[in-house]
Amino acid sequence: MKFLDWGIRLALALFFLSAATIFHGCQSKPLVLPTAAALAEFDRAGPIRPEVDMDRLIQAQMPAGTYRVVVGDVLEFTLPALLRTITADFTEPPEAIRPHLCRVVKSGDIYMPVVGKIAAANQTLPEIESLIVNAYYPKYIAYPPAVVGRVAEFRVANVSVVGEVKNPGMYGLRSDEMSLVALLTKANGIAGGGAGMIRIHRAGDDLGSKPVILPVKGTNIPFADVALQEGDMVEVEGLKPEFFTVIGLVQSSGAFPYPPETQFNLWQALAFAGGLDMIADPRYVRVYRQAADGRIVDATFKITGTEVNNAYSTRIKRGDVVAVEHTDRTRQRVLISQIVRFGTGASLLFRIDN
Prior knowledge:
The chain is α+β, with helices and mostly antiparallel strands. Among the domains are: about 1-25 and about 335-354; about 50-70 and about 155-240, Outer membrane lipoprotein wza fold like (Roll), CATH 3.10.560.10; about 75-155, 2-Layer Sandwich (wza like fold). The chain is about 25% helix and about 25% strand. The protein is built from 7 helices and 18 strands. Strand 14 and strand 15 (about 295-305) form a beta hairpin. Helix 1 runs antiparallel to helix 7.
C-alpha cells in the first residue's frame, strides 16, 4: 500500500507542476499567424527543392562527452615498475614507470599483472584507473599507486552508406565516432542532386522503418544525430519532388507519394500520416516550400482541437514539408501522459502483487 501511495502522490505532484508550466508557457508564447501577404507569397511558391544544411548537420553531431571503453579497444596504462615485480626479484628501481598494453576482451575485462582481470567495458578511463588502484592497494602494496590510462587503439566497426552521398561505400568508424553525422562526413556529405531523408537498416531491428529527416536550409525542421552499430547500412534517399513529407506530432511520419494529376490539401496530407498526435495536442502546423528566388517560405495554420484552420482550402504541392512541431506545451503534455501511465502501472503492479 505504501508503494501505491508513493506512486500516486508522485504522479499527482508532477502532474500539477507540469500543468502549471504548460499554463505559464501558453500565456507567454502566443501563436503568431501569417499575414495575408505572407499567405499569398506562400501560395505562389513551390515546389520545394530543399538543400541540406550541412552546418546544422555537423553541429548536431553527438557530443564526444566522456568516452566509455568498448570491447575491442586497446588500453595503455602507465604503472610503477613495482606492480610488475611484486612476486619477482627487482631488476629495476621500483619507482620506474612502464607502460602496460591490454585489449578489452569479449567478456569486457582487461588483465593486469598479478591481480588478473579488471572489468573495463562501458567504464570511463578514470573509473578503470580507480579499479586498478583498488586491486593493488592495500592487498599488495602499502601505498596507492599512480596509474594513468589512455585508449591506445579504438575498436573499428564497419558500417556502409549508399545512395545520395558523394562517396558511397563501407567505412570503418572508430568506437568514439559511431554516429550518423560522422559517417556522412566520411562519405564527404550529400551528393549534388540533394537528399530528402535517411533510413538506417539494422539486422533484427525496425529502426529502418523510421526515417531520419535531414535539416533543410531556411527551416527549423528538427534534426538529431543517431548512434550507429556495427553492420548498419545507411540509405540516403535522393530528393523526390513527386513526394511530400509529413513529420512531427503525427501518428506516422514519412514521405508520401504525390501521383501525377492528383491534388492534395493539408487535411489529406495529415491523414496520410495517420492524423495528429492528440496526446500531445499540438496547436499549430507549419508547411514549408521554396520560393522562386530559392528562399524557403512557410505558412502556419492554427489547430483547435481536431480542426486545422484552412486545412481543406490549403493546397499541398509536390515537395512540401508539413511539420507539426513541438512546443513547450506539447512536451509537457507528453510528460503528463507518461506520468499518468506510470501511475496506472503502479496501481496495476500493486493489484497483481496483492
